[in-house]
Specification:
This protein has 14 helices and 13 strands. It has 405 residues and is α+β, with helices and mostly antiparallel strands. The protein is elongated. The chain folds into 3 domains: 168 residues, Up-down Bundle (Four Helix Bundle (Hemerythrin (Met), subunit A)); 108 residues, no CATH class; 95 residues, Immunoglobulin-like (Sandwich). Helix 5 crosses helix 8.
Length: 405
C-alpha cells in the first residue's frame, strides 16, 4: 500500500513539474508574463497539496530539521533580496528568476520526500537535504549586493552575524546532533507543545535519544508532549513517563499518529502527520497501557528518564549479579536508578537479584495491564530476589529511596 501511494504521488508530481517547465518556456516567449506566472503558481500549489505537506515542509520550517530555523539570517537575507528582485523596473528578468527558483525548489522538495530516513546525521542538527536549498538563495543575495547603500549594509551585517555564529556552532570539533532536539524545539515541546506537530520519525528519535529505540510511543522526559500510534484499542500504548488514558476515536485507528498534551483533567489530542516512509514505527518495549493506579504513575514519574542510557548486554551482571531463567533483558540506567524490560516468554520460577549501592526500592509491574505485581525494599548488604511471573513482558523499576522528610 505504501509503494502504491508513493507511485501515484511520483506520477502526479512529474506532471506538475512539467507544467512548471512549460510556464517558464511560455514566459520566455510571451511579453505578457501574467498568465505563465499564474500557471506556475497553480502547478506548484497542486504539487504541494498532492505531496504530504509535513514531509515537504520539514526541511524548510521544522524547528529541528528546517533551513529557516537553522539559518534564520539566510532566510531573512533571501527575503530582502527577493524584494529587490521584484521591485525592479524591468520585471520580466525578475519574474524569470523567481520562476526558476520556484521550479528548482519544487523539484528538490519532491526529491526530499523519497528517502526513507528524514531524521539523519551528518550535520549539527539541520537536515542535510535542507543544505541543498541554500544555493537557491544566490540570485536573491546577488540582487541585494547590487542594491543601494542600505541593502549592502544589511547584507554585510547579516553576513558578519552568520560568520560569528558559524565559527562557534559549526566548528569541526562539534558533534552532529540528530538524536536530541534543538534548543528551540525543546522549548516548544515543553512550554507550548501544541505549536509543533513534527514528523513522527523526527519526534520519536529525538525524544528517545538512543539509536536502538526511536520508536512510538515516545514523549519528552516529563510528558509535556507524547506521540502515540493507534492500534484499534481505546487506550493503546503510552510512553512510560505518561499516565495512560483513553484516546479519542480518530486516534484509535490502527496506524494513525496522534500527539497528546497534558491539560487539567487529562490530555488534549492532535492528529499527527502521516509518514509512509517511517516503517515499523511501533516499539515492542518501553511502554505501558491499562489504568494504572496513582501510586504507580507517581513511581514512574519519579524516574529520571532524561538521564537514562542504554546498558550493554555484557554489563547486565553489574545490575543483576544473580538471576535464574529471566530471559532476554534490556536495561537503562541513570545515577540512583535503573529500569529493566523483561521480554516474554521465560521459564516458570524465574527471578533476579537486583544490586544497589544505597537503600532502594524495586517495583515490578505488568506494562500491558498497567498493574503492579510486587514492591520490595533493597539494601546494599543483603540480597533479595524479585520473582518474575512467566508468560508476559515485565518492567522492573529500581531507584534509591527518598529519605527527605
Amino acid at each position: 500500500m505504501v509503494e502504491e501511494s508513493l507511485g501515484r504521488f511520483r506520477d502526479e508530481a512529474q506532471e506538475r513539474l512539467m507544467e512548471l517547465a512549460q510556464a517558464i518556456l511560455a514566459l520566455e516567449q510571451a511579453p505578457d508574463v501574467t498568465q505563465p506566472v499564474q500557471q506556475a503558481f497553480r502547478a506548484a500549489h497542486s504539487l504541494k497539496g498532492e505531496a504530504r505537506l509535513a514531509e515537504l515542509g520539514a526541511v524548510v520550517w521544522d524547528p529541528n530539521l528546517g533551513l529557516v530555523p537553522g539559518w534564520p539570517n539566510l532566510a531573512l537575507t533571501t527575503l530582502l533580496g527577493l524584494a529587490v528582485l521584484l521591485s525592479r523596473r524591468d520585471r520580466r528578468p525578475g519574474a524569470m528568476d523567481v520562476l526558476c527558483l520556484l521550479l528548482a525548489g519544487a523539484a528538490l522538495l519532491f526529491l526530499f520526500t523519497q528517502p526513507g530516513n528524514m531524521n539523519h546525521g551528518g550535520t549539527r542538527g539541520m537536515s542535510r537535504y535542507a543544505l541543498w536549498l541554500a544555493p537557491l538563495a544566490l540570485p536573491c543575495l546577488a540582487a541585494l549586493s547590487r542594491g543601494g547603500r542600505v541593502e549592502r549594509f544589511l547584507l554585510a551585517g547579516l553576513a558578519a552575524v552568520s560568520l560569528a555564529y558559524g565559527l562557534g556552532d559549526y566548528h569541526p570539533r562539534m558533534a552532529e546532533r540528530y538524536l536530541t532536539p534543538t534548543p528551540v524545539a525543546e522549548w516548544i515541546w515543553t512550554h507550548v507543545p501544541g505549536l509543533d506537530r513534527p514528523l513522527p520519525e523526527v519526534f520519536a528519535e529525538r525524544a528517545w535519544g538512543f539509536p536502538p529505540l526511536g520508536r512510538v510511543p515516545a514523549s519528552t522526559p516529563a510528558c509535556e508532549k507524547a506521540l502515540l500510534m493507534g492500534d484499534g484499542t481505546p487506550v493503546g500504548r503510552w510512553p512510560l513517563p505518561c499516565a495512560p488514558a483513553e484516546k479519542p476515536l480518530p486516534c484509535r485507528a490502527p496506524g494513525v499518529f496522534c500527539y497528546a498534551h497534558p491539560v487539567p483533567g487529562g490530555y488534549s489530542f492532535a492528529r499527527g502527520p502521516a509518514q509512509p516512509t517511517f516503517l515499523d514505527p511501533l516499539s515492542p518495549r518501553w511502554y505501558w497501557s491499562g489504568q494504572p493506579s496513582p501510586e504507580l504513575v507517581h513511581q514512574l514519574a519519579g524516574v529520571p528518564w532524561k538521564e537514562l542510557s542504554i546498558v550493554a548486554p555484557a554489563d547486565e551482571g553489574v545490575f543483576f549479579p544473580r538471576r535464574e531463567g529471566a530471559g532476554r533483558i534490556q536495561l537503562r540506567t541513570a545515577p540512583g536508578a535503573y529500569v529493566a524490560w523483561f521480554d516474554s516468554p521465560r521459564r516458570p520460577g524465574a527471578w533476579v537479584s537486583p544490586a544497589v549501592r544505597e537503600p532502594s526500592e524495586a517495583v515490578l509491574l505488568d506494562p500491558h495491564r498497567g498493574e503492579g505485581i510486587s514492591h520490595i525494599e533493597l539494601q546494599p548488604v543483603s540480597e533479595r530476589r524479585v520473582e518474575l511471573p512467566a508468560g508476559r513482558a515485565l518492567l522492573l523499576v529500581v531507584k534509591a529511596l527518598d529519605r527527605r522528610p
